[in-house]
Design a protein that fits this description.
globular; mainly alpha; single chain; 85 residues; 434 Repressor (Amino-terminal Domain)
Length: 85
């Protein structure tokens, strides 16, 4: 369930992060189950990450990056919050 106290920008950032993971996973023809099994987590955990419904820890992100064989820097490249007006 989405965190009710998150700001609009925080939600956008988490969604962007999740979309990056999903895009890379799909390009590598991996299922949610494949990634989950590789890091010994459940499928729903990966699904929540990809939907931007969770604020993952750094260690969790590195585990997923390792499972996808992608550098952490590639994941965060281009992710940025909207500028405040």
């Amino acid at each position: 369930m989405p965190h009710p106290e998150r700001t609009r920008n925080q939600k956008i950032l988490l969604k962007q992060l999740g979309n990056k993971f999903k895009t890379i996973r799909e390009k590598k023809n991996m299922s949610l189950e494949d990634v989950a099994k590789a890091i010994q987590k459940d499928r729903q955990s990966i699904h929540r990450l990809e939907k931007g419904e969770t604020n993952p820890t750094f260690l969790y992100l590195t585990e997923v990056c390792n499972a996808l064989e992608v550098d952490f820097s590639e994941i965060i490249k281009g992710i940025k919050a909207e500028k405040s007006s």
